[in-house]
Write a structure and sequence with these properties.
Radius of gyration: 18 Å
Strand order of the largest sheet: 3-2-1-4-5-6
Shape: elongated
Order of helices and strands: EHHHHEHEHHEHEE
Distance between the termini: 7 Å
CATH superfamily of the largest domain: HAD superfamily/HAD-like
Largest sheet: 6 strands, parallel
GO molecular function: hydrolase activity
Number of strands: 6
Keywords: Hydrolase
Structural class: alpha/beta
CATH architecture of the largest domain: 3-Layer(aba) Sandwich
Organism: Phocaeicola sartorii
Protein name: HAD hydrolase, family IA
InterPro entries: HAD-like_sf, HAD-SF_hydro_IA, HAD_sf, PGP-like_dom2, S-2-haloacid_dehalogenase
Strand content: 5-15%
CATH topology of the largest domain: Rossmann fold
Number of domains: 2
Amino acid sequence: MNALKDIQGVIFDYGGTIDTNSRHWAAVLWDKYMEHQVPVDKESFREAYVFGERALARYPFVQPWHNFHDVLSIKTKLQVEWLAEQRKLTMDESQLQSYATKVADSCYGYVLDILQITRPVVEKLAEKYKLVLVSNFYGNIQTILKDFGLLDFFDEIIESSVVGVRKPDPAIYGLGVDAMGFVAKNVLVVGDSFSKDVVPAKAVGCRVAWLKGEGWGGEVIDESVPDVIITDLAQLPALL
């Protein structure tokens, strides 16, 4: 409890935190690929996922008016088309579209279920604290927050594609602290990624609640760095 004493404001990450409650999006998508029997191995999927994320960061496939279902549809289409080009999936266009649609629809339903847990947490904290969102996203995070009934809970939105800084650069969390208007040590950052949330937030002097969950590998973890570790966003209000 003392670790989170004197908190005046809370900065939330979005993807993997509010929308999946600690699960890396690659893990969520892979589960849905398996659920819908998309005939691809995990390593090939991993490569397709990385390709899709890089393409979305580089090219304006996502527009400001796109909601999250739109984003998922774009992501999955990029992934299955890459898999087909690499001859890891059938080249039949109708079958590819069927895979993409089923996975996107299923992921969207998954998020709606998770929000039944996470939205009340955000709402409860907004009653007591100033909230700021800091997210690596595609320029449409406000549309998504509005679609999910979350927008009004946040006083400020810091989105990477808008401000020109991406996690893990600590500067994006510096912008979050500036938007908060409090001393960094009195600001709590809540995020699921150790390397993209915990480390840069600590670098600018914030306290951190690490939402530890199902990652996707490749991170070097030091559990002494975050101030608290939780495994479900619903645990957070009791710590504040």
